[in-house]
Amino acid sequence: DKFDVIYFDAFAPSKQPEMWELPILQKVVRSMKTKSVFVTYCAKGQLKRDLKSLGLIVETLAGPPGKKEMVRATKP
Asked: Of 59, 63, 61, which Cα lies nearest the Cα of 73?
């Protein structure tokens, strides 16, 4: 319960797959306070399923210029 916001800007899963594996995401979610937010430009389906499996509320948002989508996940 340390962080209010996690901006997860690791390289793409195709370039750095180990950063997107479930054990890493579990550590990240454990470090989040209640009502904290995880955001990333990665919008892969597997990431969204993993975040949901860890109890986060997942939303797909329009991305900034140059990015089609991004993900925001909130810890209830």
From this structure: 59
Q: What does the pLDDT look like over 28-41, one tens digit per residue?
A: 999 999 999 999 99
Under 8 Å between Cβ of 11 and 20: no
Angle in degrees, 0-180, between the axes of helices 45-53 and 22-30, rounded to the nearest 10: 50
What's the pTM value of the predicted model, to 2 decimals?
A: 0.93
In contact, 38 and 70? CB cutoff 8 Å: no
Return d(Cα 43, Cα 1) in angstroms, integer: 25
DSSP string, 2-64: -EEEEE--PPPTTT-GGGGSHHHHHHHHHTEEEEEEEEES---HHHHHHHHHTT-EEEEEE-S
HSE-up of 40 (CA within 13 Å, CB side)? 22
Neighbour tally for 32: CB within 10 Å = 21
